[in-house]
């Protein structure tokens, strides 16, 4: 299946993510050949440092006790810890805009946080896609303003996360499709974006499709009182594992591990567990944003 066709299929399937049953996945096994691919410094340290922002359920978020990071990203990272025999240690930075600077400054070895792939980002980072995703609109429950399309956001105040692809999309929509501009309310932390909509400070937010649908369905965290618009499905793309450009040895090791995770069937079980099965990546790939549909 071509890249264009499979991304189109993924976009069409986005509407069905909430209907997939949950289930547990089996423990993966240590692989000496994988460990041998890691940079020696990481083998000696016994850990790989991983930056995230834990507020996008079901991809990565804080558990009920607000102490443990859970979600698809955490399951993948925990599997890597077993497969490589070293600890992949996740740290919640809280602010999405901090991820890329932290990687470039070598504060962390990699990031997994639902970061979307773009050609511009791939000039700065190496990006390994691990699932498809798209974008949708979230509004107050009951949709009191009757918002149905991106164009309905014209003239409204829309909350978005600072430095996100959603922020760029809303600004582009305002510039290219609105007679009355969108008032873009850029907020550093995603939970506060949702609060802005829930409290009426903003009319809507544009966010990741998988996160929007899951959050609204389960009414968790600051998504309580919000409604996703499943019929709005656009800007299909990848969520990625991101690494600095001078970390090729780790990049290749992670790609090899992710491919093994796919082939083992455990990756598919992880996606099922988090109601994300239709968004599966078929195989490990690198810096593939230019092959995504342009619209």
What's a quick, concise take on this entry?
With 295 residues, this protein is of the alpha/beta class.
Topology:
Elements: H1 3-13, H2 32-37, H3 40-45, E1 47-52, E2 55-56, E3 60-62, E4 69-70, H4 72-84, E5 87-92, H5 99-104, E6 110-116, H6 119-124, E7 125-140, E8 157-161, H7 165-177, E9 183-187, H8 190-198, E10 204-208, H9 209-218, E11 226-228, E12 234-244, H10 248-264, H11 266-273
Parallel strand pairs: 1-5, 1-6, 8-9, 8-10
Antiparallel strand pairs: 2-3, 3-4, 6-12, 7-10, 7-11, 7-12
Detailed description of the structure:
The chain is of the alpha/beta class and 295 residues long. The chain has 2 domains: 3-133 and 238-284, Periplasmic binding protein-like II (D-Maltodextrin-Binding Protein, domain 2, 3-Layer(aba) Sandwich); 135-234, Periplasmic binding protein-like II (D-Maltodextrin-Binding Protein, domain 2), CATH 3.40.190. It is 36% helix and 24% strand. The chain is built from 11 helices and 12 strands. It has helices at residues 3-13, 32-37, 40-45, 72-84, 99-104, 119-124, 165-177, 190-198, 209-218, 248-264, 266-273, and strands spanning 47-52, 55-56, 60-62, 69-70, 87-92, 110-116, 125-140, 157-161, 183-187, 204-208, 226-228, 234-244. Strands 1, 5, 6, 7, 8, 9, 10, 11 and 12 form a 9-stranded mixed β-sheet that branches. Helix 4 (72-84) crosses helix 10. The longest helix is centred in the last third of the chain and has 17 residues, at 248-264.
